[in-house]
Design brief:
By secondary structure, the chain is mainly alpha-helical. The chain is 45% helix and 0% strand. Helix 2 (8-30) crosses helix 4. The structure holds iron/sulfur cluster. Residues 26, 30, 32-35, 38-40, 47-49, 112 line the site of iron/sulfur cluster (SF4).
Length: 153
């Protein structure tokens, strides 16, 4: 939201209000780790920051045959859960295929709601542009494929 970007003081005040509400509600509902760049709707509502390796693009190669985590063998892999849950969501099912840039740790402990409205979670360090570009290309390719599927029906 452009107006917020032009008013940093207003953004700070909004963040002070939003942060505790987001933290409490999402910790209870999703065991949120407040990364400040939420992608829950693209991960089957399974928080990727609960992965001990902070994987943001699917499971690592260490998932156990029973679907549990390599690091915590008694816990299910958050990505296995996410992929299963994504199939049951009424919305965003295909979003599980989106490619994400690495975690921007500068946003840790900020409100992802404010990040969303200001767009600050889309501003990446130099060098990440290739990731953003490939994500855009993937989204376009996916949209075209979905369009072709629909036309074929
Ligand atoms: S992706 Fe980030 S903001 Fe979203 S639930 Fe997980 S830690 Fe919280």
């Amino acid at each position: 939201m452009k107006i917020l970007n032009e008013k940093p003081t207003a953004t700070k005040i909004l963040e002070r209000v939003a942060l505790p509400v987001e933290k409490i509600s999402k910790e209870v509902l999703f065991d949120c780790r407040m990364c400040g760049q939420c992608i829950l709707h693209e991960t089957g509502l399974s928080c990727p920051m609960r992965c001990p390796k902070n994987e943001r693009n699917g499971p690592c190669g260490g998932v156990r045959p029973n679907g549990n985590c390599e690091v915590f063998p008694d816990k299910p892999c958050v990505w296995v859960l996410g992929i299963e849950r994504a199939q049951r969501l009424p919305l965003w099912r295909e979003h599980i295929n989106h490619l994400h840039p690495p975690v921007d740790w500068r946003l840790q402990n900020t409100s992802s709601w404010i990040s969303l409205v200001t767009g600050r979670d889309s501003i990446h360090p130099k060098g990440w542009d290739a990731v953003s570009a490939s994500r855009t290309r993937m989204s376009h390719a996916q949209s075209e494929a979905e369009g072709a599927d629909k036309r074929g029906k």
